[in-house]
């Protein structure tokens, strides 16, 4: 089949460092191409892909520091993709709400992956969306407000990683790892507190966005001493893999309902257990006591105690769990199933004749049988 992958313009595909959505787009795209499908990737011009790349702007918006207002470039990026809609069997939207607002203007079916939680204002677009969508966890789907129609929900497709590309290491170094954005919702300060209570060194890795600079200066930077708490900044994908493999455990003290959290399977692939608060998708990704530990939100003492029990977790079990449930092959097959169902639905609608209006007393089972069948839910 011929598939359009519409990626955000903010980061290149794949991202050189941080960028969960773009990393997922890259793996889906490469997996589809490897299976013989024709894929066109709409992304920044510095993206690297085996698919056909169509770029509106030559580099990612995050690196285009000379732009005063980046939004118009993203508008044209989306417009160009939707202009080409007739060339595809399916449009897979990873850009969120802007393309969703125009889904009713194109005949090609659109499936939108929920990479982010809805906000008070984006909810309005979801309430009027005329395409289909999937979530990346059951927990994320549970956050949908009742006003969002469910009849076009296609189910859960978990994010995947290339497990084989993560180095496995059974013998760990005596330190903990925090690898994520430095942000209050990620609970960076709680990771520091838990590591200190456990009496274990903590390595911090992650970018600091402009909106989180004050948080970093007030709640994180004063704790960085180069010994008990070290900060190495934003790291490359390859360096992140090495950090995962070396650490005895990854701390994830979430302060929000994380829709997925790629760091969990990434750490597991390297044989590193994850200690997380029981929020968002964490309970779907971690087997408590087998591939990590799940704790009540805010339980810093419990996180510290769990850190001292990391030697009870088998690193090989962590990797096997990821391989069986969150490998990229599982994700690609999940999306191919969604695409097949959308194409079948579209063909069915073309074949079904519009029935003549009938009076209420004339309605029978057979007269209603021509209505398009609903898509089944998965996950």
Summarize the structure.
By secondary structure, the protein is of the alpha/beta class. The chain is 35% helix and 14% strand.
Describe the structure.
This protein is of the alpha/beta class and 379 residues long. The chain has two domains: 2-156, 3-Layer(aba) Sandwich (Rossmann fold), CATH 3.40.50; 166-321, 3-Layer(aba) Sandwich (Rossmann fold). The protein has 14 helices and 13 strands. It has helices at residues 20-34, 71-83, 97-100, 122-128, 138-142, 188-198, 213-220, 237-246, 263-269, 282-285, 300-307, 315-325, 328-351, 365-368; strands at 2-6, 38-42, 52-54, 90-93, 110-114, 132-135, 153-156, 176-179, 202-205, 229-231, 249-252, 274-277, 292-295. A seven-stranded parallel beta sheet has the order 3-2-1-4-5-6-7. Strands 10-9-8-11-12-13 form a six-stranded parallel beta sheet, with helices on both faces. Strand 9 (202-205), helix 7 (213-220) and strand 10 form a beta-alpha-beta unit. Helix 1 packs across helix 13 (328-351) and helix 9 crosses helix 12. The protein is globular, with a radius of gyration of 23 Å. 42% of the residues are buried.
């Amino acid at each position: 089949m011929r598939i359009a992958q519409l990626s955000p313009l903010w980061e290149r595909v794949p991202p050189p460092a941080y960028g969960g959505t773009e990393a997922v787009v890259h793996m889906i795209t490469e997996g589809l191409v490897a299976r013989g499908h024709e894929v066109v990737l709409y992304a920044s011009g510095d993206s690297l892909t085996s698919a056909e790349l169509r770029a509106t702007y030559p580099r990612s918006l995050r690196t285009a520091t000379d732009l005063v207002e980046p939004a118009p470039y993203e508008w044209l990026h989306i417009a160009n993709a939707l202009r080409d809609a007739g060339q595809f069997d399916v449009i897979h939207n990873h850009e969120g709400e802007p393309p969703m607002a125009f889904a009713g203007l194109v005949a090609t079916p659109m499936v939108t992956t929920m990479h982010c939680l809805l906000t008070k204002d984006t909810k309005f677009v979801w309430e009027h969306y005329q395409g289909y969508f999937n979530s990346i966890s059951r927990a994320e789907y549970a956050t949908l407000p009742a006003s969002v129609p469910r009849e076009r929900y296609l189910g859960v497709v978990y994010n995947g990683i290339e497990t084989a590309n993560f180095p496995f290491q059974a013998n760990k170094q005596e330190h903990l790892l925090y690898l994520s954005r430095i942000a209050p919702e990620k609970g960076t300060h709680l990771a520091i507190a838990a590591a200190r209570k456990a009496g274990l060194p903590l390595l911090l890795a992650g970018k600091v966005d402009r909106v989180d600079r004050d948080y970093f200066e007030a709640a994180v930077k004063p704790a960085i001493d180069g010994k008990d708490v070290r900060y190495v900044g934003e790291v490359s994908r390859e360096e992140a893999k090495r950090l995962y493999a070396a650490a005895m455990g990854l701390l994830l003290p979430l302060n929000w309902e994380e829709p997925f959290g790629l760091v969990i399977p990434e750490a597991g692939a390297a044989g590193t257990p994850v200690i997380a608060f029981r929020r968002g998708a964490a309970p779907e990704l971690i087997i408590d006591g087998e591939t990590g530990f799940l704790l009540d939100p805010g339980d810093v003492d419990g996180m510290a105690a769990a850190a001292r029990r990391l030697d009870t977790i088998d690193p090989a079990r962590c990797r096997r769990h990821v391989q069986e449930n969150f490998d990229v092959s599982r994700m690609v097959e999940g999306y191919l199933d969604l695409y097949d169902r959308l194409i079948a639905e579209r063909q069915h609608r073309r074949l079904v004749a519009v029935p003549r209006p009938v009076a209420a007393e004339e309605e029978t089972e057979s007269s209603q049988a021509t209505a398009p069948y609903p898509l089944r839910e998965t996950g």
